[in-house]
Amino acid sequence: MKIDEIDAPGRAPFLEEDYRRKVAGDVRSLFLPGTSIEVVHEVGPGISFQHVLFDFDGTLSLIREGWPAVMVSMMTEEILATGTKESPEDISRRCYEFVMRLNGKQTVYQMIELAGEIRKRGGDPQDPLVYKEKYHSRLMEKIGDRREALRSGTSRPEEHLVAGALGMLAAIKDMGLPMYLASGTDQKYVAEEAALLGLTLFFGDRVYGAIDDYKKFSKQMVIERILRENKVEGSALLGFGDGYVEIQNIKSAGGVAVAVASDEAGRSGRTDAWKRDRLIGVGADIVIPDFREGGALLAYFFRTR
Q: Are residues 17 and 115 in the same domain?
């Protein structure tokens, strides 16, 4: 399935929703005995999962760890160029707020917000795609060494993956379940970085990322296409992600959603509290810090009684 074939014929353009908390108040949960696997909503037993969807950055890949600082720095400079009297610190805080609020959507949505902030201050913003390209150029400078180390073999994929990811993917592959990558990062970068991490073995050509015409791509479209082409109900879908968009889309389709609340910078194995709260807020069924206990998680999902 090609990127330009994701959209269904005659379908109206789809715009990704902003974050809206759907689960309010205290959430009662339990942990699978002896694990850090948090069960927010009981799943199964006996669900017949047939397709598995993964987000990319932060869920599997750590190549782009640290990206928010790069994006916020670029945006702060662009807003300050309007001549605003606000301090760099205040602008940076404002940018960080909306960058993280929109985290999980396609990158261009953050750039649309940037253009709006520039316009509010009397500036004449460039096309959001121009800002997206500026951001990508800066990010490539930051992560270029990581990509080159993987390309040359001086760095192993495991060093740039969420812990336990390869073992989890291998176990799902051995079960014969097709897996899909769906990312808000641009398609060309997702495909390149998935290959650098050795993930093509698991996903083949089922790797989907954003395109410049952002109204013609979304994770929801990928999910709908999977279900439609395979003639299965949403309950056949198991999904993993660290962003609200994929969790929300998986749940809306009727699937089971696992929040990967990964500590990207520290790789501590502890759950990131901000991600956990945010993803439970849009309906995540399970919360895990990484895939180190993937065997226990799969045993839970595929138990018969």
A: no
How many Cα atoms occupy the beta-carbon half-sphere of 304 within 13 Å? 0
The domain of 109 spans: 67-152
Q: Strands 51-54 and 38-39, how do they pair?
A: unpaired
226-237 tens-digit pLDDT: 999 999 999 999
Q: Within this chain, do residues 43 and 79 fall inside the same structural domain, yes or no?
A: no
User: 293: closest CA among 281, 301, 282, 283?
Assistant: 301
Q: N- to C-terminal Cα distance for the chain?
A: 36
CATH number at residue 217: 3.40.50.1000
**Whole-structure pTM value:** 0.90
Asked whether residue 24 carries a pLDDT value surpassing 80, the answer given is: no
Are 9 and 268 a contacting pair, CB within 8 Å? no
**CA atoms of 79 and 96, how far apart (whole Å):** 13
